């Protein structure tokens, strides 16, 4: 039988929202306080959902050791306590939480072989969150 | 169609072990969860049902009935129990969060009348949960 497994992680990072395609005034009006040139930080809550048949011999969709290990190695160690604007994926893309959510989905999609990736959900603060499920609609 | 979710909490102990595996394999696959004396969690259960809103009552489902069914079918069986030893499903299956979600679905689905079960979500901890939608 098919089940969905979700796991939550925490990382902290700083960013500045600024687009070179916009004028100074436009950046300020679009991004407001987030355009502060010195940047600011968040405690991001990451929620990864994978799915698959529940293995009859282990009772698991996938071993949490594999999922935790992959996320630690490929996502948390890349973003935790970093300035997102200094990373190559945000050299031309503004490090909004939308773009970060898509980026994390793609890291998992490319590299995690143990279960089907359903969705990445990213909370920037307790008040806002973003979900991305690739070409699919996020399941409720 | 309206979706309605009811939460409940239960506390239980479990351990992970497959008698088909060797002792060494069990330790390697299940790690500390293989401790035969068990360990415990405060589980949070979320049951989501869906249905049309009844024109007379304004309900998708009578919450009191849903609560009673959840208490009778799930909480009375699992709350403050050692799942491996006291819950029939887990005499033969490993009580992982995945299998708990499936067992809850199988206990509730035949008891619900007007509303249709949409999703069973079981939180083992606030940072780990499983959703089951009744899919084969």
CATH superfamily of chain B: 6-pyruvoyl tetrahydropterin synthase/QueD
Q: Output the CATH homologous superfamily of chain A.
A: 6-pyruvoyl tetrahydropterin synthase/QueD
Largest interface: A-B, 21 and 28 residues
Rounded radius of gyration of chain A (Å): 17 Å
Overall geometric form of chain A:
elongated
Strand content of chain B: 25-35%
Major sheet strand order of chain A: 3-1-2-4-5
Instruction: State the end-to-end CA separation of chain A.
Output: 18 Å
Number of strands of chain A: 5
Strand content of chain A: 25-35%
**Major pleated sheet of chain B:** 5 strands, mixed
Tell me the Rg of chain B in angstroms: 16 Å
Helical residue percent band of chain B: 25-40%
CATH architecture of chain A: 2-Layer Sandwich
CATH topology call of chain B? Tetrahydropterin Synthase, Chain A
Could you provide a short overview of the structure?
With 140 residues, chain A is an alpha+beta fold. Chain A is 28% helix and 32% strand. The longest helix of chain A is centred in the middle third of the chain and has 16 residues, at 64-79.
Task: Walk me through the structure.
The complex is a heterodimer of chains A (140) and B (136). The model of chain A has no long low-confidence stretch (mean pLDDT 97). Chain A has a five-stranded mixed β-sheet. Chain A contains three helices and five strands; from the N terminus they run E-H-E-H-E-H-E-E. In chain A, strand 4 (116-125) and strand 5 form a beta hairpin. Chain A has one domain: 2-Layer Sandwich (Tetrahydropterin Synthase, Chain A), CATH 3.30.479. Chain A starts with a strand and ends in an 8-residue tail after the last strand. Chain A is α+β, with helices and mostly antiparallel strands and 140 residues long. Chain B is α+β, with helices and mostly antiparallel strands. Chain B has a single domain (2-132), classed as Tetrahydropterin Synthase, Chain A. Chain B has helices at residues 23-30, 63-78, 83-86, 89-92, 97-108, and strands spanning 2-14, 39-51, 81-82, 116-125, 128-132. In chain B, strand 4 (116-125) and strand 5 (128-132) form a beta hairpin. The longest helix of chain B is centred in the middle third of the chain and has 16 residues, at 63-78. Chain B starts with a strand and ends with a strand. Classes of the chains: A alpha+beta (140), B alpha+beta (136).
């Amino acid at each position: 039988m098919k089940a969905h497994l979700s796991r939550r992680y925490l990382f902290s990072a700083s960013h500045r929202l600024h687009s070179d395609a916009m004028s100074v005034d436009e950046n300020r009006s679009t991004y407001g306080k987030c355009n502060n040139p010195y940047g600011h930080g968040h405690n991001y809550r990451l929620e990864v959902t994978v799915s698959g048949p529940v293995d009859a011999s282990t009772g698991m969709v996938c071993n949490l050791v594999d999922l935790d290990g992959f996320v630690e190695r490929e996502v948390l160690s890349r973003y935790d306590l970093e300035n997102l604007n200094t990373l190559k994926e945000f050299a031309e893309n503004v490090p909004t939480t939308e773009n970060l959510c898509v980026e994390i989905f793609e890291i998992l999609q490319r590299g995690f072989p143990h279960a089907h990736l359903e969705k990445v959900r990213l909370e920037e603060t307790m008040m806002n969150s973003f979900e991305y499920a690739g070409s699919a609609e996020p399941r409720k | 169609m309206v979706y309605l979710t009811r939460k409940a909490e239960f506390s239980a102990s479990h351990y992970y072990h497959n008698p088909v595996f060797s002792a060494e394999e069990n330790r390697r696959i299940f790690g500390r969860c293989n401790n035969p004396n068990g360990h415990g969690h405060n589980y949070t259960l979320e049951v989501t049902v869906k249905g049309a809103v009844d024109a007379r009552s304004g309900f998708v489902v009578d919450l009191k009935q849903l609560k009673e069914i959840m208490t009778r079918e799930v909480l009375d069986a699992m709350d403050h129990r050692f799942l491996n030893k006291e819950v029939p499903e887990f005499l033969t299956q490993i009580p992982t969060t995945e299998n708990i979600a499936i067992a809850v679905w199988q206990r509730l689905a035949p008891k619900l009348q007007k509303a249709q079960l949409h999703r069973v979500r079981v939180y083992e901890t606030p940072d780990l949960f499983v959703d089951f939608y009744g899919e084969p």
